[in-house]
Amino acid sequence: MGDELTRWLDETVYPRLNHEIVFGDLQDFRAVGAGRYEARCPSHNDGGRPNFSMAAGVPCGHCFRCGHSRSWWAHIESKVGPGRAVIEELSRMAGVPPLSASEEDTSRWKAVHAQTQRLEEILLAGRRTLWEPKGTEVLEYLQSRGYTDEVIRKTELGAWPKELDASTAKELGLNLPGAGTTHRLVIPMRNPAGILAGFALRYIGKPPKGVPKFLYPRGLKRGEQLCGLSYVRRIKEPAVVVECWLDGEILRVYGIPALTVGSATLTRGQIEAVRKSSIKAVILCLDDDDAGQDGIYKAAQELLREGPDGHTLRVYVAPSLSGLDPDEWVIKNGPDAFREHMRNSIPAATWATRYCFLGVDLKHSQSRDDAFDKAMDFTEKLTPIPRSETLAALVEVVGIPSDALKQE
Q1: Which of 267, 297, 264, 265 is nearest to 371 (CA)?
Q2: pLDDT, tens only, 324-333
Q3: Maximum Cα–Cα distance across the chain
């Protein structure tokens, strides 16, 4: 039942809530920028500038003065009491039927929530550490990537804090070679509801051969994470799908809806998470290398198929970033230029057809026919519009009359 309650919160309740609904009763609650809010901290609520900060798509807030973290669940619990009362209030606020759950079920989920709350507190400590002497090397690395201090403060990035001692690291599955020494940049990994699932740790600088760029907690299924979905689903623009955690963090700071997949390949779980969301269009912006381009082809083939519930997506492929990562491109050219560049994206079906013929000598019959078969296989189970785009691209690339293709 604990898993069922978690799914109910992640998939049914939290996507319908926002900070205005949950935290709007806090003193001096107000919007302070793109998807960001602040209020007086519910822990001390004294004079001075509001210090309780909330970011869109993250179901909790943090006070950078006293270190207090409070989730939506905890805030509601502080008003209505524990257990079943929280579920009833959440269902009322979200406008959905309450989940049938016993007190034992809610107690079990409360233990899961306590662990999540602990992760949030460690993340907040890491964000503070970044600006302390212990975090200097991590901060300088971020600055070397072109991030200004203002941009860095708007991210959730941090440096390995003292709160992550050996026993805590072991408990969180982070007792890994290099964790806290060579890999000290702390990057939050949030699930589709925005709930903190764990941390990715990045090597500071370029890792030597044989050393991974990122470390992930033991037991955390990276392929189930789709960071940014809770933020993206609230924006009407197409979601930009990127590989690297830092790319997603920086794009979202600039108000660009970015989904981070953590590799060059979208897993089935990530694809299903996109399908279940309210997202209507995605732009695949994976790396320009061979792995990234192959990942685009495979992801496009899956995303363009009609989902079991009849939901279809508009899928595009971003134009080349000329060898730059998305964060580098937006830092160099600015967010407005990035959005304009994304408007030049082409339909994924058209891109995939051209990709099938990349490097193929059309004068060589066997190579041409193999590429043609691959392109036709791509069209299987596609909905009518992307299928027609594929056929149009075949006419363009191969020169076969469209009437002949329709008979294939």
Answers
A1: 297
A2: 999 999 999 9
A3: 78
Task: Provide the pLDDT for residue 92.
Answer: 94
Q: Which pair of structure tokens corresponds to residue 324?
A: 């730059």
Which has the closest alpha carbon to 181: 211, 151, 209, 153? Answer: 211
CA distance 7 to 5: 5
Amino acid at 254: Y
d(CA 356, CA 345): 18
Q: ∠ at Cα 15 (14, 17), nearest 5°?
A: 60
The b/e string for 184-196 (b: 16+ C-beta within 10 A; e otherwise) is bbbbbbbbbbbbb
**Checking DSSP bridges between strand 314-317 and strand 346-347, what pairing results, if any?**
antiparallel
- Which one-letter DSSP state was computed for residue 266? -
Chain centre distance of CA 159:
20
Distance CA 85, CA 323 (A): 53
The amino acid that residue 163 corresponds to is E
Whether the CB-CB separation of 72 and 59 falls below 8 Å is answered with yes
3-state secondary structure of 215: strand
- pLDDT (tens digit, 9 = 90+) per residue, 204-236? 999 999 999 999 888 777 777 788 888 887 777
In the structure encoding, which two tokens stand for residue 273, read together?
A: 């998470």
Identify the CA nearest to 61 among candidates 51, 74, 70: 70
> Do 91 and 104 touch, CB atoms closer than 8 A?
no
What is the CB neighbour count within 10 angstroms for residue 198? 21
**Coil/strand/helix, residue 45:** coil
Tell me the Cα Rg of the chain: 23
β-sheet bridge partners, residue 404: none
Report how far residue 372's alpha carbon sits from residue 81's, in angstroms, rounded to the nearest whole number: 64
- Report the C-alpha gap between 304 and 334 in whole angstroms: 30
